[in-house]
Amino acid sequence: MGTSIRIATVFGGAGFIGRHVIRRLAKTGCVIRVPARHPGEAAFLKTNGAVGQIVPMAVDIADDASVARAIDGADVVINLMGILAESGRRQRFDLVHAEAAGRIARLAKGADVAHLVHVSALGADANSRSAYARSKAAGEQAVRAVFPEAVILRPSIVFGPEDNFFNRFAGMAARLPFVPLIGGGATRFQPVYVGDVADAIVNAVLNVGAAGKTFELGGPRAYSFRELMQLILDTTGRKTRLVSLPWGLASLQATFLEMVPGKPLTRDQVTLLKSDNVLSGKLPGLAELGVAPTGAEVILPTYLDRFQVGGRFASHRQGPSLPQLTKVDAHGTHY
Domain NAD-dependent epimerase/dehydratase: where (predicted)? Predict the structure, then answer.
């Protein structure tokens, strides 16, 4: 420990993980640059630091000169960029996960940046049938080729208040008569709390012993997909049915759903679900970065309560109680 940070550039800083990382970095007193295609979308981050401490910047991630300007003078660069589904000409796995990752690493090395942290994904595999997993592996390879001292982090499913996993399925359970279990729900995951991931990222910079290593980040317990869906139902007090969906039918549905705005399910995601997403045990993890993993059971009730039967303040687990009068706001949220 003991590394000090003067200027940090955080690619993907306006995203789910990024906002938690920036909140922690701001406490170190460093200046934080947040490259974005549309800087206004990152303006909300400014309140996490002092006046002028957090600086959104207009950056074209496909342009060397633009990326170099965001990196110039920084002693720490963190790459959090990632997409779950492809769309349009620019949002492609190979461009975001591999080409951009390599460009950031190459330019960071050329600018004599002291620390580079690259966030990949658990399950990154050059031989995977999933394009997402292959592109994540290609990104790791591109980073290592030009910046061998970089720290690479591979988180499992990351959960927290703004996540797109538990919130999505809790919303489905609240609206639909059943929740589909793709492939029967046997695939295993080891979800990791976003606060723990953010701590690990900052600690990877401050811990000189982390340089050049790859870490797998997962929570304290592995669950099957079915167990995670049941956990959501238990947390929200829902009685929604869990219905097995065969792989073939899931792929067929994904063929149409990937054409819907927001792409709720793609064929590549179905392919990815055929492989477990748990720690291999062969690489260091949160413990080696000084972070104690937080269980999903501890955190989920703090933000899935809005999906509870009867609304956020219902007490379905406390036994019989007097009837409650509830109001509904313009967004359909009970309070």
Answer: 9-218
